[in-house]
Design a protein that fits this description.
Strand 4 and strand 5 form a beta hairpin. The chain starts with a helix and ends in a 12-residue tail after the last helix. The radius of gyration is 24 Å and the shape is globular. By secondary structure, it is an alpha/beta fold. Strands 3, 4, 5, 6, 7, 8, 9 and 10 form an eight-stranded mixed beta sheet that branches. A two-stranded antiparallel sheet has the order 1-2. It contains ten helices and ten strands.
């Protein structure tokens, strides 16, 4: 072969004229943060957004959770039109009212929690479901008020209570108004405890800050999804305070169960069945003559 042939530019044969380019639609696949595997979206949704390979629980919307948990998938909502104002005239790079409006458009909800009544395994139940997609599920004055009103409804109607928490904590844009919700929700839950009706709290990833202290850990039975982060202050703040390194699994549901804060960890596909079993056992009617206090 002549030396010049070694330096001649070669080209790969291109597609034949008229050949159609294969189109792969977007949104068909998802990458699991737990195991980094690529999962077909339909397969992931069929498994309730739980990775079939490693069991990682992806976040789901409040309305999707209602579909999974309630008998007919329907929550009869209350206080639907309540929305946050800007009591402090909060100054930041993003105007607070604009952040609320974007969250409303993104989630289709007016606030970070849906509240109402629904049927779970035949039990009429007062239900609250938080949505992390709405400003990180943060608790402002409206979230606290909606939770308090739901508990008052449960007291009036003598219903069991179920709250699904997903939150980064109190909403900083409302300052003291958001911090006041802790006293409000804790006080009304104190009244609810006299009913002899069960309060079930389900911690999802994450349940942090003021929500943890305000109502998420005040229940008769505390359940958690696997791997859910839960706690009050973040690990960085705690390490700086105590000047010690924290365990690798610190503030996971598994760590909290080992130290007595969480009663049971339940994978999402088994959660509805577990909640029904608890209600069957704990939600006794007045006709039963039950005087059990939890």
């Amino acid at each position: 072969m002549p030396l010049s042939e070694w330096f001649r530019k070669t080209t790969k044969p291109g597609p034949q004229a008229g050949a159609a380019k294969k189109h792969i639609p977007e949104g068909l696949w998802a990458k699991c943060p737990g195991c980094q595997q690529i999962i077909y979206h339909k397969e992931l949704d069929a498994n309730l957004q739980v990775c079939p390979a490693c069991g990682f629980h992806h976040r789901i919307s409040a309305r999707r959770r209602a579909e999974i948990i309630l008998d007919d998938g329907k929550l009869d909502e209350i206080d639907v039109g309540m929305t946050s104002l800007d009591p402090l005239g909060f100054k930041a790079e993003k105007a607070y009212p604009d952040s609320v409006a974007r969250a409303q458009q993104k989630t289709g909800a007016m606030e970070a929690v849906l509240t109402g009544a629904g049927v779970v395994g035949g039990h009429q139940t007062a239900v609250a479901i938080m949505d992390f997609a709405f400003i990180g599920g943060s608790m402002g004055s409206v979230v606290g008020e909606k939770i308090a009103r739901l508990v008052e409804l449960a007291i009036e109607k003598r219903l069991p209570l179920m709250i699904f928490s997903a939150s980064g904590g109190a909403r900083m844009q409302e300052g003291m108004y958001s911090l006041m919700q802790m006293a409000k929700t804790a006080a009304v839950l104190g009244k609810y405890q006299r009913l002899s009706k069960p309060f079930l709290s389900i911690l999802t990833n994450p349940t942090m800050g003021g929500v943890t202290a305000s109502f998420a850990t005040l229940a008769d039975v505390i359940l958690a999804e696997p791997g859910a982060l839960t706690g009050f202050a973040g690990p960085r703040v705690i390490e700086q305070t105590i000047r010690e390194r924290l365990p690798k699994d610190f503030q996971t549901a598994e760590f909290m169960q080992a130290h007595g804060l969480v009663d049971v960890i339940v994978p999402r596909p088994k959660l509805r069945g577990t909640l029904i079993a608890l209600l069957d056992h704990l939600d006794r009617s007045e006709e039963d003559g039950a005087q059990t206090h939890y």
